[in-house]
Request: fold
Amino acid sequence: MSTSDRRHNPGVGREVAIGVVGATGAVGPVTLELLRERGYQNLRAFASARSAGKQLDGLTVEEATPEALSAGDLDVCLFSIGTAASRELVPHAVRGGAVAIDKSSAYRLQDGIPLVVPEVNGARALEHDGIVANPNCASIPLTCVLKPLHDAVGVARVRLATYQAASGAGTERMERLRAQDPAEGDLEMDWEFDGEEFDEEAKLRAETRKILELPELPVSATCVRVPVMIGHAESVWIETEEPLSPDQARRLLAAAPSVRVEDIPSARGAAGEDEVLVGRIRPDRAAEDNGIALFLACDNLRKGAALNAIQIAELLLARRPVAV
Ligand SMILES: NC(=O)c1ccc[n+]([C@@H]2O[C@H](COP(=O)([O-])OP(=O)(O)OC[C@H]3O[C@@H](n4cnc5c(N)ncnc54)[C@H](OP(=O)(O)O)[C@@H]3O)[C@@H](O)[C@H]2O)c1
Reply:
């Protein structure tokens, strides 16, 4: 397991009251594990009425009712409960005075709500009005890789294909994969289809544009679910404004925060790691000019979800004037 970015916040981090909402799902237990590793002790676990009373990581799961979330005794709520439930419950946590960091797509594209990858646009988190949105698990690693390249030579166009793990679709999908005969495994496209694109593909474009603050950036994605438990991978073809050699790209990426250059990244290699693994960095022989191709892999439950949200919280906690 990587040790990157495990520091505590001076003075305030250990005492802050954090609610993990969606604690019994795919992302929730990873969130609790990472919070404990980072020294946070004042934690509460919330889920639906179905899970109330269950024991989880030494905590008794509480039902995430509007009353419980708005009671005023939580400083930060990390939500991973799905879009409809987030729309309903996030405002109650905010009303109670907590900052809500939401991993669903409910608020990601809403004007005035920051959509944050700390290494890419961390300063935006400070502009929140109670809610900070955590991007999609495929947008986070993509923007971690695009940002240093964009800063150096300007990103002009992005095409990508994704290979997304079952855990990206939650615990039910993980159970289905566990129960499945490996010989029966298939590729799936299990997102909502608008007649042209799956919503995951449209999300990737819109979120990448918002995070990088490049509202016109051409982004074309084909998203595919693969029979892998943890770890999203992406093939990415990037056209740049100025020439970029593979060696230069490798150097830029090796120096980028939360990115690790490897020869051949894999989903399994990324699982349990904090960094985005990137490799296969080579010229894109099909580009008219200034094209580079690469392959990345990222633990969708960690940097793609739980870890990114905790890093957002830590950006905000580091700005708190006094310990709570
Ligand atoms: N999985 C990923 O890699 C990933 C990455 C980025 C973002 N996300 C986002 O995170 C969210 C959750 O993902 P997941 O994969 O952890 O899903 P999941 O495995 O299906 O878990 C859903 C969690 O939400 C809880 N929940 C559902 N409805 C609720 C309600 N009305 N009130 C309170 N709690 C409720 C569930 O509690 P019960 O157990 O009691 O039903 C469970 O703890 C989704 O919005 C997803 O898009 C996931």
Observations:
- DSSP finds ten helices and 14 strands in the chain.
- Residues 138 and 249 are 20 Å apart (CA to CA).
